[in-house]
Specification:
It is a single chain. The chain is of the alpha/beta class and 252 residues long. 34% of the residues lie in helices and 19% in strands. The strands form four sheets. Strands 2-3-1-6 form a four-stranded parallel beta sheet, sandwiched between helices. Strands 4-5 form a two-stranded antiparallel sheet. Strand 7 and strand 8 form a beta hairpin. Helix 1 packs across helix 7. The chain is globular. 40% of the residues are buried.
């Protein structure tokens, strides 16, 4: 669901995780916009790849709240982050800041971690939203609160994408049939086209091509360090299932 496997167009689970991130962020953005007395900071899963957090930027399309999004692919200049937060908050429309759990500072170190090292020698991130919230309170003098859905982002059945659910079954069927044919040492890849309409098919990719390769969120899809380009939504929206709520925005 992190969407960080290479070769395949996308990973099973990503569409649903992205839908959850988008709708949960929109709901928080509406709350922040309706009562703009504090900055809301939302932390989403993604240690090294920001695909799921990028989907939360959908809140800026569904609501009129200010939304800033920070991914682990680009080191965060905390002074600039705080300046951007202060400027965006000052517009009076409410502000939602979404961060990947693994965002790092300019020194390459996580802004927050648990102090625990996993079996691969990686420091386990955690608490990024609370760290940013603390900085907002202490350095900007603004009210702020942190939210972290954690595992809910990959387990919420009500937010499941119908496209993702269908493809997950298709991947499973393809894998079983391949195994019955004697195929082994491969991963099922999803091959997708988006025009004139979305469709997908399956193929096999040798594990040697995907093992130990991490697909990062494209740098060209990150705008000014805290925005997400339209190209990402062209890519992700078909996977998220469509039919998003039409929120009432009274200021419009």
């Amino acid at each position: 669901m992190d969407n960080d496997l290479d070769i395949t167009d996308h990973c099973p689970g990503f569409g649903s995780a992205a839908r959850y991130a988008a709708l949960s962020a929109a709901e928080l953005a509406l709350d922040a916009s309706g009562l703009p007395i504090h900055v809301v900071v939302l932390e989403l899963m993604g240690r090294n790849a920001g695909w799921v957090t990028a989907a939360s930027a959908m809140a800026g399309r569904l609501t009129d709240c200010e939304v800033l999004t920070y991914l682990p692919e680009i080191p965060v200049d905390e002074d600039r982050m705080l300046a951007d937060i202060e400027k965006s908050y000052g517009k009076g429309r409410g502000l939602l800041v979404t961060v990947s759990e693994g965002i790092c500072g300019l020194d390459g170190k996580p802004l927050a971690d648990t102090g625990i090292v996993d079996g691969f020698g990686h420091r386990i991130p955690g608490g990024a939203a609370q760290h940013v919230t603390d900085q907002i309170i202490q350095k900007l003098g603004l009210k702020s609160r942190a939210e972290k859905p954690g595992l809910l982002g990959r387990t919420s059945i009500p937010y499941v994408s119908p496209v993702d659910r269908s493809e997950a079954y298709a991947v499973g069927r393809y894998a079983v049939n391949a195994a019955l044919r004697g195929e082994s040492g491969c991963m099922v890849s999803i091959d997708a086209v988006r025009k004139p309409e979305y469709s997908s098919s399956m193929s096999l990719v040798p594990l040697s091509r995907v093992a130990n390769v991490e697909k990062k969120f494209p740098a060209e899809w990150i705008v000014d360090g805290n925005g997400i380009a339209d190209a990402f939504f062209d890519y992700a929206l078909p996977l998220m299932g469509g039919d998003f709520p039409d929120y009432a925005l009274l200021r419009k």
